[in-house]
Specification:
Distance between the termini: 63 Å
Radius of gyration: 19 Å
CATH class of the largest domain: Mainly Alpha
CATH superfamily of the largest domain: Tetracycline Repressor, domain 2
Structural class: mainly alpha
Length: about 200
């Protein structure tokens, strides 16, 4: 008789693998992270890895999907706050993301940025997934901007969708520069440029 599957163990193995994968991809890269390394850090047996994921690429996409879901949920928590005016919500969104980078000592960067730079032009499956992730995040920003006076941030010549795209492009560039500089200066400049206010995180 087959042994009943422990659903809690079954799911915890998957989550442990995804946790270990996200950490490994941020510490080094997707390409440099080996499955054996991920198994060792997660404490999950090898058979469980291939039960959940058909390949390393499938695993990487699952890590990226979970990361994006968490990022979109966090963004909505800021950008859909009914107690704040739209531009204040936008500022809170970027300040929260900046604080997260500070907690990581301005290293590792954003996983979505890292994977896009590393894999999007080499692996079509990743390219499609990552493009969808950027669209998901941009859509949440655009919904907030649709309620805003875009002249407050100097983007009144753009539609809310275009303004959201521009902001996310500029922010991802600042995050990439942050990794090169190892400090907060690129993010601080982004905040001063967009919101034209004193730096609240000095």
């Amino acid at each position: 008789m087959a042994r009943p599957r422990d659903q809690n163990t079954h799911m915890s193995h998957r989550e442990k693998l995804l946790d270990a994968g996200e950490h490994a991809f941020r510490e080094t890269s997707f390409s440099e992270s080996g499955i054996n390394e991920i198994l060792a850090s997660s404490g999950v047996p090898k058979g469980s890895f291939y039960h959940h994921f058909a390949s390393k690429e499938a695993f990487g996409i699952a890590v990226a999907n979970r990361y994006n879901e968490a990022q979109v949920a966090a963004a909505k928590g800021c950008l859909e706050d009914p107690t704040l005016p739209p531009i204040d919500r936008l500022r809170l969104f970027f300040e929260s993301a900046r604080k997260d980078m500070g907690n990581r000592k301005f290293q590792q960067g954003c996983l979505m940025c890292n994977l896009s730079t590393e894999l999007a032009d080499e692996r079509p499956a990743f390219q499609a997934v990552l493009d969808t992730h950027w669209q998901n995040m941009t859509a949440v920003v655009a919904e907030c901007l649709a309620e805003a006076d875009l002249s407050e941030i100097g983007l009144e010549h753009l539609t809310p969708e275009e303004a959201a795209d521009w902001l996310m492009n500029a922010w991802s560039g600042a995050l990439t520069r942050m990794k090169a500089s190892g400090n907060d200066a690129p993010l601080a400049l982004f905040m001063r440029t967009i919101f034209k206010t004193e730096d609240t995180q000095k």
